[in-house]
Amino acid sequence: MTGQASLSSRPLARLWPRRRPSVLPGFGLTLGFAVFYLGLLVLLPLAAVFLRAAGLTPEAFWALVTHPRTIAALRVSFGASLVAAFINVGFGALTAWVLVRYRFPGRRLLDAVVDLPFALPTAVAGIALSSLYAVNGPLGGLLAPLGIKVAYTWLGVVVALTFIGLPFVVRTVQPVLEDLDKGQEEAAATLGASRWQTLRRVVLPALAPALLTGFTLAFARAVGEYGSVIFIAGNLPYRTEIAPLLIVIQLGEYNYAGATALAVVMLVIAFVLLLAINLLQAWSRRRLGGV
Amino acid sequence: MRIDIQGIHKEFGQFPALRGVELTIGDGELIALLGPSGSGKTTLLRVIAGLERPDAGQILFNGADMADTPVQERNVGFVFQHYALFRHMTVEDNIAFGLAVRRGRQRPSRAQRRARARELLELVQMGGLHHRFPAQLSGGQRQRVALARALAIDPAVLLLDEPFGALDAKVRKDLRRWLRALHDETGHTTVFVTHDQEEALELADRVVVMRDGIIEQIGTPEDLCLRPATPFVYGFLGDTNMLAVLVREGTAWLGDRALALPPAPPVPDGPARLYVRPHDFRFTDDSDGAIPGTVQAIRRRLDALRIEVSVGGHHGPVEVALPAPAPAPEPGQTVWLRPIAHGLFPGGQGVFSEYEA
């Protein structure tokens, strides 16, 4: 009781410190606009999805989302997206390193090529990839004798998702790498650290927040990807069928409630994962002493 | 540890950064590399550390050639101009880094590393700040952490690149005195780079003056101030006036006047440059052998009156410094100037008059 009394007697401003002195005026206006804009652009359509999904009875909803085919599709979508994001973090960081640290002829060209997956219509990418990796295609033909099949397998899904996610990692790591003081690496060397120790203890920790951001973006993009995957995946139910495709199939059958129910499940899983990664990122940023 | 630097050449692309540098640094010496930017002083420091590979020449540590010894194994403590602290590590982890990356039995236990880090933090007068991150420190504190980190590996030589360059004047002066005391206490062979002559003269046992990749002069602060070896050193260390003169039969002529200069070794006949520092001029009533001029302006400084005197010919005004209480001439007044010390350079090597005791 006494605790509550002291709480209520505290000035309101301290409970809700929304105004800090700023060089730019207009906190209220800009906050209002940002909330309105996000609401109109993001939250409203998402709310519509939830509303539509509510058209299903709870039993029907549950039956749909726990159907083995649904679960298999979700597993393919999120599993392949995670694998693709991991691959992108590794090779995207390497690409960024090469672009930032070395000077070679054609560097600017290579730099521009990185953005291609951004600009290319995903269907074009899908067609190109599937013809390349088909058993009679130039790359698929080489891999087939080794017993590796890419097109129309789970591996193909990963390849497509890796392709579209690459620029996210390169473009987030690149500026951080450019700002990274080379002196830190030299300092580590004078203190006796091997190259591997310098990379592991000095360079990677400095890049960690950027790598996590890149991972998040690549992952989020991959989860929502549709166009490029359907051409190379083969779309075999239970094996290479992705969740977005399942939604399109439901739409094709005019089962809007079913489609939105699947969308809701995807949204919730994606939101939980992204939130977790963001928390991890905040933690790693704090460790950098940026406070 | 003794360091021998022999015939070091280093080019960056077409730009020659070092052109045949010879230098011997004695065990426990505190040496300053002094020069304007682009003189190659930082490059020389990095070559000693092994951060740059010389195109020609040798670096010997106690007589052993270091050409095939990578920077990791040279055991040098290097303090970078912008500190290069590891931002994601606490102060303690920064200092203990050099111990933590050692391998096998040479690697001290975690407790030993922590103890060593704390000990060094006390040494650099930052006890209690071990848990801070570099971003939470002031410039002077970062500098000291960088120094502690370099000292943690018990380096054979301590190399500092513009150690006080990024600090404000007051902090710089304190740290300078403190570094000298630390050097006297720990006895590390130390080489530091600076473009600040005052810093070099105050701190170093010997100063190496560099320009355009070559050494202009090596000497004690005393040598440099009283016997500058080249016109460049004369001009770089403190203010100086330069007068173009002609030497004939051992006498320097300014225009049609024979100058009476303090006794100095003779200079060959021909054109020469006469250097006189502002505080080495005296006003005189005796016009014989003195330089005539007209007072143009008088400025008050803390330590002296600065008087600009035009001496005619092609020269700009000559600057004369008078000790504060001296009676000052009036602007427009005609005066006679007599140098009490000077340097005379006939193009090549110069001669100097010594101050009379």
Automatic annotation (TrEMBL), chain A:
Gene3D superfamilies in the record: MetI-like
Record bears the keyword Mitochondrion: no
GO CC, alphabetical: plasma membrane
InterPro entries listed in its UniProt record: CysT_permease, MetI-like, MetI-like_sf, Sulph_transpt2
Keywords for the protein's UniProt record, in alphabetical order: Membrane, Sulfate transport, Transmembrane, Transmembrane helix, Transport
Residues of the ABC transmembrane type-1 domain: 74-277
Membrane topology, as annotated: Multi-pass membrane protein
Pfam families linked to this entry: BPD_transp_1
Entry's transmembrane regions: 23-51, 71-100, 112-135, 150-170, 202-220, 256-280
Subcellular location: Cell membrane
GO molecular function, one term: ABC-type sulfate transporter activity
Function: Part of the ABC transporter complex CysAWTP (TC 3.A.1.6.1) involved in sulfate/thiosulfate import. Probably responsible for the translocation of the substrate across the membrane.
PANTHER family xrefs: SULFATE TRANSPORT SYSTEM PERMEASE PROTEIN (PTHR30406), SULFATE TRANSPORT SYSTEM PERMEASE PROTEIN CYST (PTHR30406:SF8)
Subunit details: The complex is composed of two ATP-binding proteins (CysA), two transmembrane proteins (CysT and CysW) and a solute-binding protein (CysP).
The protein, known as: Sulfate transport system permease protein CysT
Organism lineage string: Bacteria, Pseudomonadati, Pseudomonadota, Alphaproteobacteria, Rhodospirillales
TrEMBL record, chain B:
GO biological process: quaternary ammonium group transport
Keywords tagged on the record: ATP-binding, Cell membrane, Membrane, Nucleotide-binding, Sulfate transport, Translocase, Transport
Domain of life: Bacteria
UniProt-listed Pfam families: ABC_tran, TOBE_3
Cellular component aspect of the GO annotation: ATP-binding cassette (ABC) transporter complex
Family annotation (SMART domains): AAA
InterPro entries: AAA+_ATPase, ABC_SmlMolc_Importer, ABC_transporter-like_ATP-bd, ABC_transporter-like_CS, Mo/tungstate-bd_C_term_dom, P-loop_NTPase, Sulph_transpt1, TOBE-like
A molecular-function term among this protein's GO annotations: ABC-type sulfate transporter activity
Boundaries of every ABC transporter domain copy: 3-237
PANTHER family: SPERMIDINE/PUTRESCINE IMPORT ATP-BINDING PROTEIN POTA, SPERMIDINE_PUTRESCINE IMPORT ATP-BINDING PROTEIN POTA
Protein's recorded name: Sulfate/thiosulfate import ATP-binding protein CysA
Species of provenance: Pararhodospirillum oryzae
